[in-house]
Amino acid sequence: xxxxxxxxxxxxxxxxxxxxxxxxxxxxxxxxxxxxxxxxxxxxxxxxxxxxxxxxxxxxxxxxxxxxxxxxxxxxxxxxxxxxxxxxxxxxxxxxxxxxxxxxxxxxxxxxxxxxxxxxxxxxxxxxxxxxxxxxxxxxxxxxxxxxxxxxxxxxxxxxxxxxxxxxxxxxxxxxxxxxxxxxxxxxxxxxxxxxxxxxxxxxxxxxxxxxxxxxxxxxxxxxxxxxxxxxxxxxxxxxxxxxxxxxxxxxxxxxxxxxxxxxxxxxxxxxxxxxxxxxxxxxxxxxxxxxxxxxxxxxxxxxxxxxxxxxxxxxxxxxxxxxxxxxxxxxxxxxxxxxxxxxxxxxxxxxxxxxxxxxxxxxxxxxxxxxxxxxxxxxxxxxxx
Amino acid sequence: xxxxxxxxxxxxxxxxxxxxxxxxxxxxxxxxxxxxxxxxxxxxxxxxxxxxxxxxxxxxxxxxxxxxxxxxxxxxxxxxxxxxxxxxxxxxxxxxxxxxxxxxxxxxxxxxxxxxxxxxxxxxxxxxxxxxxxxxxxxxxxxxxxxxxxxxxxxxxxxxxxxxxxxxxxxxxxxxxxxxxxxxxxxxxxxxxxxxxxxxxxxxxxxxxxxxxxxxxxxxxxxxxxxxxxxxxxxxxxxxxxxxxxxxxxxxxxxxxxxxxxxxxxxxxxxxxxxxxxxxxxxxxxxxxxxxxxxxxxxxxxxxxxxxxxxxxxxxxxxxxxxxxxxxxxxxxx
Lengths: 386, 334
Prior knowledge:
The structure holds 2 protein chains of 2 kinds.
Chain A: H1 4-10, H2 20-30, H3 53-73, H4 81-88, H5 95-130, H6 142-155, H7 166-186, H8 193-217, H9 222-230, H10 238-257, H11 259-266, H12 269-274, H13 279-301, H14 307-319, H15 323-351, H16 365-385
Chain B: H1 4-28, H2 39-44, H3 49-83, H4 96-110, H5 119-139, H6 144-169, H7 174-182, H8 190-208, H9 211-217, H10 221-226, H11 231-253, H12 259-271, H13 276-300, H14 309-331
Helix pairs in contact in B: 1-3, 1-13, 3-8, 3-11, 3-12, 3-13, 4-5, 4-6, 4-11, 5-6, 5-11, 8-11, 9-13, 12-13, 13-14
């Protein structure tokens, strides 16, 4: 809904009516072409950065690398960025630096980056396809379904967190709860943005209540599962990474392929039908790819909320609203967000004095993202409704 | 509206019978099992010390507490729904419960020296602050769903706060606090009952006094003002009383959801009347029945383990809320 003015704004003036000299002036201002093939030299109200997408992606990647190095330095034995870089490049200053950085902390950082990117892309996809700026895998109940499926699977001994089948089970749950929310929201006409999300939140509530039932009945793994439900990166090892990376590659490739479909739907139902697309079919495909992404991320880091929501809104002021630009940038923004949230969680954890390493508290990353995401959601609802 | 008086009388009778029945079942089940037949005798003159302990010190306070808390929640829900003219209003959906919960968790985890009877006061300030924020923000929003979503956004922020508090402050107690955050009535004693009763003695009469004002407010803000109601002041008062009721409930057994939402709806459907003078007391009564029944279900359904009462209320309440949203959507398509 708020996505539309962008398209309208770009073609705000009638192209033919524009004097030639004004157009050439505009062109020299713009520098390079808009990336999505809009006619050359038309006045544009896209953010300037939208014209330099490659440049922004490089910048985001560098920022991400910086955050990762910062992240790898944190822990009970703090390392400086220089020490981390040395250990990463194979010339550790102390021999144990290598073990700590590569052996212990690297998987956590990599998982944060990958899962964050997956959640960011899932959020941007869902926002484009539902044309709802409030969409997010957590808010639409997709994460809750994945969590429920994994917890039920684990309590019946079907899956363990490090088994390759976990993401499959999680995808089943994600698809089921996503479909339920979709059915509830779309029944009988167009969905109102807030009602749609409200349905999602309620389905999530039911899902987490069922998780609580399962946990109460099978109390053996209570502590670990509890943190994982909130979403945590604590104690992630290379074993978890082994589960995540194949899934991440497959689902991200599928999601990048689905960008075209998402764009068509983002242009509106009428436009999509007019260009000969099957809106329902595309919608299901994009929903499916979002469910794949969410399920993979949830398996490894738990139901971290709001990453998808915040990531998409973070990049829109930079690159405009077009899904072809928002979705790739949302991957970087999501990765940076989850990594940043984990840095904050880690920092707070180590700021609290603890006596021993084993029993020390660890702040779940999901709590940090909720602290950021809740107020943002509030602001968005107000903006949407005013 | 055919026979409001008769409907009221029969609803009162049915709820009272249901309450007594649930209480009796609650008192008799467990170990040691006491047959329903022997229950009066066991209550009045327990032969066995074990039976006496189980009945009077474990089961009875729990049943009484569930009834009191349910009563408070039902009344709070009715007050908020009529006062804000939002059929989906309930303390947990307006952030009031989470506001109270954050304060209670902070008091418990950080060891803030607040004397026990005053914990609801502290909870009240938290609940009031968040509730007032949500209501102030929500008044600007037309759609009831958007208002509720505001409350839920606040609630998710606050739950982040609570999780941070719990994991950093008391990692060993994580499971215990998880139970608390779900809303549970397990292991409560007469001290909790006294605490809640004390607060309800003030808040329930205050809430019932609002009945006439609520009926006038239902006409709309301008007609109500023309009829001499100070709309803003009345709303503020309503919010304070509803928050007070919620704060007492949350302080005793955590944020139990959906009782406050459901009770008034059940009453209005059954009475076919929206007269607040009937709805308020009956919603309180039905709330008591609902929570007592939910608590006993939670206790019995998975013996010997026990699931939190809050889970049962969510599992029953959330689908009903979904249905309510659907029916509201059908009435006023966007």
